[in-house]
Design goal:
The structure holds two protein chains of two kinds. Chain A contains six helices and no strands. By secondary structure, chain A is mainly alpha-helical. Chain B has six helices and no strands. The chains are: A mainly alpha, B mainly alpha.
Chain lengths: 138, 119
């Protein structure tokens, strides 16, 4: 039984929304926390003040929205489909780190990031929802 | 410190994802439209395991916040992909999803990538 076209369209719309929200949210969060004067791992009481930083707040808002988007996505597709496809965010995070935060990214780190992405893309090309119906070609 | 933070992120994320997937499958299809969101919140309030998954998500998030502060974004985000390997195993063992040869190969590539990042 093939997937319903509407269901596929909804699945991919949510997927693209999620792919946009998470890396941009992560970038805002990283930007905000890195410019925050206190260390959060040493001083957990600083979390509340850190969250008042506009960049941290923006990052958190985008990430919360991405979580809600993903909950809806999980009601349409399997976790083992959702996770790998959204892994394109790992490449975007490394790129954003290098471009916007001026991080040194070695060739080996890029290779690692690309391997993560390739593995994810391979997994993403399999059936969307195996617990509800079985696809003939597996 | 960054390895402790990363471990917390990875374990809490994996647990949260497994609980979320399990509960949302049982809850049926949802969307994030205006009416969909209301129904989504109702579902969250009704399902206890979903609330637990959100607690795990909060733990993972606060650890992640400290991680992106202490470590480069280009390390923090791809290294947190380690949760994906644990999740693929749990998806097969706990959620009984079908994990074929392609998915298994993909998961192994991800593992290789994370190992390269770790060095």
């Amino acid at each position: 039984m093939p997937a319903h076209p509407n269901r596929t369209l909804r699945t991919y719309s949510l997927l693209f929304l999620f792919i946009f929200l998470r890396p941009v949210g992560n970038l805002a969060l990283a930007w905000g926390t890195k410019h925050f004067p206190q260390s959060l791992s040493v001083n957990p009481s600083a979390y509340l003040r850190a969250m008042l930083d506009p960049f941290v707040a923006l990052g958190i808002a985008m990430l919360i929205l991405s979580v809600l988007t993903r909950l809806a996505l999980l009601s349409l597709a399997d976790l083992s489909f959702v996770l790998p496809v959204t892994a394109v965010g790992y490449i975007l995070a490394t790129l954003f780190g290098q471009v916007f935060l001026h991080e040194q990214v070695t060739v080996q780190q890029w290779l690692g990031t690309v391997l993560v992405f390739l593995g994810a893309a391979l997994v993403g090309s399999t059936a969307h929802n195996t617990t509800e119906y079985e696809e003939a070609s597996e | 410190m960054k390895w402790i933070l990363l471990s917390i992120v990875v374990c809490a994320t994996a647990l949260s994802d497994i609980l979320q997937s399990h509960e949302m499958k049982r809850a049926g299809e949802h969307s994030v439209g205006a009416r969909g969101l209301v129904r989504l919140f109702q579902t969250i309030a009704r399902r206890r395991m979903l609330i637990l998954s959100i607690v795990c998500l909060a733990v993972s998030f606060f650890a992640f916040m400290a991680l992106v502060q202490a470590a480069p974004l280009s390390f923090a985000v791809p290294a947190s992909a380690a949760s994906f390997i644990i999740e693929t195993l749990l998806a097969k063992l706990v959620l009984k999803e079908h994990v074929g040869a392609r998915r298994a190969t993909g998961a192994l590539l991800v593992l290789g990538g994370v190992l390269l990042l770790a060095r």
